[in-house]
Amino acid sequence: MESLCKQFDCQECEKFDQCGGCLKRCNRGKCIAADTIKEKGTEGFLQLKEQLIREINDLNIDGLFLNDLNLLSGSYINLEYQLENGKKIKLLNDNDVYLGNQVERKNNERCYGVACSVNHILICEYGCNGDKPEIILYKKREL
Question: Which of 20, 39, 76, 111 is the most exposed place for a label (fewest CB within 10 A)?
Answer without folding.
Answer: 39
